[in-house]
Amino acid sequence: MLDLSVAIRKPAGMPAATLSGLHLAEAEFALGGRAILRGLTLSLTEARIGILGQNGSGKTTLLRLLAGLIAPTSGTVRVDGLDPATDRRALLPRLGILFQNPDHQILFPVVEEELAFGLRQMGLPAVETAARVARLLAAEGRTHWARAPVATLSQGQRHYLCLLAVLLMEPATILLDEPFAGLDLPTCQRLARRLEHLPQRLITITHDPAALARADRVLWLEAGQIRMDGPPDSVLPAFTAEMARIGERDADADLPG
Amino acid sequence: MERNLTHIALFAALIAVLGLVPKIDLAAGVPITAQSLGVMLCGTVLGARRGALAVLLFLALVAAGLPLLSGGRGGLGLFAGPSAGFLVGFPIAAFVAGWVVERTTLTPAIAAGAGAVIGGIGVLYLFGITGMSIALGKSWTEASYLALAFLPGDIVKAVLAGLITQAIARMRPGALMSRA
Amino acid sequence: MLTLTSPVETPFHLVPAGAKMASLCAITAGLIAVSSPVLLALILLGTVGLMAAGGRVFLLQGLRLLRPLWPFVLIVGVWHLWTAELGEGAVILLRLVIVVMLANLVTMTTRLSEMIGVIERLTAPLGRIGLSPRLLALAVALVIRFIPVLAERVGQIRDAIRARSPRSPGWRLVVPATLAALDDADHAAEALRARGGLG
Questions:
Q1: Residues 6 or more apart from C73 whose CB is under 8 A from it?
Q2: Which domains does chain B have, with CATH numbers?
Q3: Can you give the pTM of this predicted structure?
Q4: Is the ipTM of this complex over 0.85?
């Protein structure tokens, strides 16, 4: 099978460093002949962006495309002028990712090791890294977490640890995959409060409109394409109405593909 | 590559976790450990090199003082005692088992079963019996009588390794790195 | 992660790991030359004395670590009683117990991180074929991180099986456990790539 990403991906004709934000140009992604994302051209520069869609709409694929975990089968993806699929290291201080399940994200058995990893990956010496980790934990009132085994943290605490690990890198943009899924209400509220005050650009992928009430821009993704793109006041009610309409139908019997 | 590293590490962890499962009692009353089954699977699922590295990583941690061997055993003492031969033989057995799966085109069940017999019995017993004969001051033949007690269990283990590898191949088609 | 390193502090804890391992190898080699049961018995007493110097708790832990040996001691003991070669039997068993005890002494007085350090130094030459110490350190961290995760999953699987069958799960755990390991390996690889990869 032809590797179209090599043949069709255009060199960055746009000037590299000046173009901040996330830009897709006719980005497509297909798997096994099935198109999951079609011809997306987007410029994501707002401070709070939401990507809303049902399960199966392609929103997780879009997140992975933006994160550079997969490369588009055609078209381009650029984050701050860089290609995330090939320049992962260069993007470490610019783009952070918070996955849905902390157990799929945490790699180290002890809190301070987990926090230190990203900075060490960027080449920061061990002493300076340890100092920054200690400073962050102190600022969060969690100095006692430093030597704690990750296995002793609760689900919500592990989620928080992942967020701290991302924040330590001081990225300009953070991608969040269903950040509130599976969290109890108090944890949701705490997390929402924390996120609200972050200086970074946040791009939240979710199926729950309630999470995006305070966004600057909401994109409704359906079957791999943008169905609606605008302020939450217009997109969220339309989405909720459509979901209600679908929910009225008795059966969800169609198989994908 | 990241996938190699994480698979090696996760299977080393798997061997450790299978050590926590109580001995599996078979019809003849001969127990087998899920852990030794795990060692075989490292080879048959991950392939020769990755499988051997997974087992070596596991052994390094046992030697370093983690009580990961079934029954909560660990430490350097195990490598100085009569079972040392078996411990040394484990990664090689996994390698051989993986090698058989990689090099043949038989169905995974047969390939893995054969690999487990050649590696998990043939090669492993070679090292294990040698180790026992040195530690216990017995001739090789004398030491082999002691190992015979485990033979029925290990034959069943080889069959299970084949069936389990086949099941994995069916449930996660791309996952069998030994047949990638 | 609970290790076999003893929390009781002894002078041995301060000796560098490499020196202890080297001494262990030297003593083991030396013991092969000793063939007098009386001398070996004295050396054994001396070894027990070393352990006792660490206190009662320390000594008890050391003795507990000898437990895997008892079937072999029994077999060899009975064997040599049968063949009436008691002297030879004593030499074999005494050497065995001394070596295992000394090896356990090293384990009990050396921290996990120190042992990993020794292993890293020993495998440093392999760096040329792509197995660098940094990869080893990362691999060790991953194993220790994921043992509790997999253990919890196996517990859930066991509960799920027990809910449907009165028999003990046994080998039926192995397939789901292996699948869990494969899935976690995929997720961890992705998380690793998302954080810059191995470079």
A1: C93, C96, C97
A2: 2-178 (1.10.1760.20)
A3: 0.89
A4: yes
